[in-house]
Amino acid sequence: MSEEQLSVHFNKHHAAYIKNANELMAKMDKARKTNKSLDMKSTTKSLTFNMAGHILHSLFWENMMPKDKAKHKPTGRLAKLIDRDFGSFERFKKDFSEAALSIEGSGWAALAYDWQCDKLVILQIEKHNNNIVPSLYILLVLDMWEHAFYIDYKNEKKKFVDGWWDIVCWSEVETRLKEM
Q1: Which residues pair with 173 in a beta bridge?
Q2: Has this prediction a pTM greater than 0.70?
Q3: How far apart are CA 126 and CA 69, in angstroms?
Q4: 123 neighbors 141 (Cβ within 8 angstroms)
Q5: Tell me, which fold does domain 3-62 have in CATH?
Q6: Which mean pLDDT values do the consecutive 10-residue runs of the chain (180 residues) have?
Q7: In angstroms, rounded to a whole number, what is the distance separating the alpha carbons of residues 60 and 18?
Q8: Residue 131 confidence (pLDDT)
Q9: Which helix (H) or strand (E) holds 57?
Q10: CA neighbours within 13 Å on the CB side: how many for 20?
């Protein structure tokens, strides 16, 4: 990913989710202090969207590293779980890529760990609407919104996904798994 792509993504898109979430929380605080009514349905929906955008983007940045420092496969417990739950790393990579490429519109592909079942699962997150399954802990995300790739890849999403595999920071994913 080019510096321009990353800069626009981080400084414009991710920053907007933070700004919007902060403004919405301030609006809610002000309404409470002045005893004013709010349209809670639209306010909380917007707050959830923007907060999830911030959280998912934060994971996205942490899940990547410079190509010359990246390892191309996970190790340790994560590698063992991937082999157990998907049969091989290659099969996991294929399934995750297909999940990312089949997102309708804007969204995210994610690898999560279900601590109740002791199982890795691949998810699609529409927009930022992470319909929470309480036992799932997100380990790895790939942003499939156009703003994540359009400068470098135009409409060639597959090239973006293929290139992303070269910069995944598997040590960070392993660290998140250990936090469970």
Answers
A1: none
A2: yes
A3: 31
A4: no
A5: Helix Hairpins (1.10.287)
A6: 87 90 93 88 90 92 91 94 98 98 92 94 84 79 90 92 96 93
A7: 15
A8: 59
A9: helix 40-62
A10: 18
Taking the domains of the chain in order of start, what are their residue ranges?
3-62, 76-178
Contacts of 10 (CB under 8 A, 6+ apart): 57, 61
The pLDDT value recorded for residue 9 is: 82
Question: Distances from the Cα of 173 to the Cαs of 16, 156, 168, 178, in angstroms?
Answer: 26, 26, 9, 9
Residue 179 carries which side chain, given as an amino acid letter? E
CA angle 145/147/150 to nearest 5° reads 105
CA atoms within 13 A on the CB side of 38: 20
Q: Which fold has domain 76-178?
A: minor pseudopilin epsh fold (3.55.40)
Q: What distance in Å separates the CA atoms of residue 68 and residue 164, rounded to the nearest whole number? A: 13
- Return the exposure string of 64-100: e unless at least 16 CB atoms fall within 10 Å of the residue's CB, then b: bbeeeeeeeebeeebeebbeebbeeeeebbeebbebb
What distance in Å separates the CA atoms of residue 144 and residue 148, rounded to the nearest whole number? 6
Alpha helices in 102-165 (DSSP H): 150-153, 157-164
